[in-house]
Amino acid sequence: MTNSISQTPSYTSPLLKRPGAAPLADDSLVDSQGVAWHYGDPLGEQRAIDGGAAVIDRSHRRVVAITGDDAATFLNNLLTQKLDNAADGFSADALDLNIQGHILHQCSVTRAGDTFYLDMPSYIFEPFVDFLQKMIFWSQVDITEKDLGILTLLGTERPLIDDLPAAYSRVVDWDGVARIDLAVARGDLDAVVDKLIQRGAKLAGLMAFTAERVRAGEPELRADLDERSIPHEIPRWINRGEKTRAVHLEKGCYRGQETVARVENLGRSPRLLVLLQLDGSAPEDPAPGSDVTYGGRRIGRLGTVVHDCDYGPIALALLKRSAIEADELAISGESPVSAKVDADFLPDEESTKAGRDAIAKLRGQN
């Protein structure tokens, strides 16, 4: 067993030297340090996704490789994703929960040959990998950090990446536009991006990706969730039908599984991740983490805020279920901002639960 994890200094992408590159100026809960927020035309960069292709630099994410004879079962026993029989090329998101079922870490998992690659927001890396190392015990597992950068292509299909040098690639199953993630050596980022541009892609900043992420209902842990968050608060993370999402409902035991099973079979989460339409006339955007209120009472927490080229200012928020149909909400701050839940975003959820049906039958109610 070997472990190679570095305490690396702050990362700066070589693509920040490109013309017009601008980092996110303000401190943000969104993982954004070290890459461009935009390249001088933030809304135009989003437009490039419609009917075309945009490549986004997400190389600030950190990547770890898990290898060894026990890699598949090791990860399967720890994460919410079913990985013990994952085939070469398998890719999905996964979560690490605590014993109460609260979300501690999130990552994307891809199997390439005998290697499982986990990539994640930079601020998660050290505590998450420290946890993985502590759980090895006698497993035949090696954990090694890789100097790879993630490039995300939006609005395109796989042929655009043919013959590019990559450790792995994945087609992402989410509720957004066509998306491919490509993991390349950080030293090759400039060359790979140049090839993609030659093939018709436009370089876009992290703001364009963030707008698509918010519209797709994909939260980022630090920005959109809190220490009480459980998986069912994000219905798009629950594996249903043919969708491959972060929480597999038919797999063996893992930490926090009891909470997942209980909510799935007996009830609903007390909160729900929603999409908010914000008042575009407000003098400034509200900050992630701000209170969302209704009638003067706190009913939730604001998450990622971003300007979308079609919808204007939008945001993710965790709200009490009892408030998701409120007519108008307010977001606290020096200049309160009004907001409304986007009803088209709300998921279709199961009207009955298997566990409740079973209880009803036992009581002779069915």
TrEMBL record:
- Keyword DNA damage part of the UniProt annotation: no
Give the signal peptide, or none.
none
**A Pfam family matched in the record:** Beta-barrel_CAF17_C
CAF17 C-terminal domain location = 273-340
Looking up InterPro entries in the UniProt record yields: CAF17_C, TrmE/GcvT-like, YgfZ/GCV_T_CS, YgfZ/GcvT
Q: Which Gene3D superfamilies match?
A: Probable tRNA modification gtpase trme, domain 1 (3.30.1360.120)
Q: Which UniProt keywords apply?
A: Transit peptide
Q: Which residues lie within the region annotated Disordered? A: 340-366
Q: Is the Transport keyword given for this protein?
A: no
Sequence ranges of Basic and acidic residues compositional bias: 350-360
Its recorded name reads Folate-binding protein
